[in-house]
TrEMBL record:
All residue ranges annotated as the Activator of Hsp90 ATPase homologue 1/2-like C-terminal domain in the record: 13-152
Pfam families on file: AHSA1
Organism, as annotated: Rhodococcus globerulus
Protein name per the record: SRPBCC family protein
Stated family: Belongs to the AHA1 family.
UniProt-listed InterPro entries: ASHA1/2-like_C, START-like_dom_sf
Amino acid sequence: MDRIDRASLVIEAPPTVVYDALLDRESLEAWLPPDGMRGRIERWDPQSGGGFRMVLSYLDATYSPGKTSAATDVVDVGFAELVPPERVVQRAVFESDDPWYAGTMTMTWDLAAAVNGTEVTVTATDVPPGIDQAVHETGIASSLANLASYVEGRG
């Protein structure tokens, strides 16, 4: 069976506000890096067929060696599908010499209107085998919590 990593959270903001935060450069730099990391976008093309390149740096690489270097993960992300304000599908490729991190991972961000805002569900498929599932799901949940903190009150 193919591995699926998933996390979801109800965010107290309307779907349009959440969707906009998925496609805004400054927003992504602020909320996408999970706890213990910071991010910087080097290339930005927010349209279907476009994408971005993000450098994620570990604040303390002692116990979290990176995929690209000891302290970084570099990922090229393409926007495969944009359906405002319901879905963003990303194709992510990590820059790494380690074959355990090779391949294209698909990240699907589904947004559904909920009574208190927007239920955001992130589903990752074709996850490289070098990425531990529990650690990945914790990272996705952390990014979702950061997204909630970032957008709540902006709607």
